[in-house]
Amino acid sequence: MKFLQEGTLANFLNRLTDLILLNMLWFLCCLPIFTIGASTCALYEVTMRYALFEEPPIVRTFFEAFKHSFKKATLLFLAFLAAGLFLALDLWCAILWGIPFKFLFIVVILAVFYFYLAVLSHVFPVLAYFDTGVRESVRRAFLFSMKNGVFTVFIMVINLLPVLAILTAPAYWGEILFLYLILGFSVISLLSSLHLVRLFDPERAAKAQQIEARQRRLKDEDRAEKDDTEEET
């Protein structure tokens, strides 16, 4: 969607408008709760195309991806929700119960939590990009998350940022929640996608970046020629 003519500020404002619209679509499609997985897949479908310098029609691309991935994404969401609740219950019990080797149990559960969050942060982008089955998506998500630990931690942190922000500044929870409902989740998805497309398909990402650089250079040269012509006249 382009409401303004080309230019640095115009491009920024156009992208900002796109991200606000995308965030609203994601939030509205998450409202039934069990559709969070399909909505997240559709969100990443759009933002990973942005990361590859494509300009997909937002609404049509989002709902096509939502419909296409609905069954598999919903199964993944329910499975990870159940696993997350089970791990949270285990951690709660390990903290409250007076059991032998309590500290060891807590460390083991936290380690499992790390792998759980690492796979969770990759599994829906994997499903959106590769369109694989449920088991294959989990397997690939695990392998990709272990491939580059630093970026995995980065993606995990920015995905948990809303919770961390509210815990850090509980007095501003309303403002933080409002910001994320308007824009935050699509921005998080875009930041993650900038790394994920290079992790999933480095050759395609590099080629897309070269094409974008070439097009930008041609535009700059064309703009410079127009400026020179205007000065001569």
Structure summarized in a few sentences:
The protein has helices spanning 8-30, 36-51, 58-96, 102-130, 134-147, 149-168, 173-200, 202-232.
Topology:
Elements: H1 8-30, H2 36-51, H3 58-96, H4 102-130, H5 134-147, H6 149-168, H7 173-200, H8 202-232
Helix pairs in contact: 1-2, 1-7, 2-3, 2-4, 2-7, 3-4, 4-5, 6-7, 7-8
Shape assignment: elongated
The gyration radius over C-alpha positions equals: 21 Å
Ranges where pLDDT stays below 50 over 5 or more residues in a row are none
Helix content: over 70%
SSE topology string: HHHHHHHH
Distance between the termini: 35 Å
- Report the major sheet: none
Q: Averaging pLDDT over every residue, what do you get?
A: 88
Number of strands: 0
* Alpha-beta classification: mainly alpha
- Supply the number of helical segments: 8
Strand content: under 5%
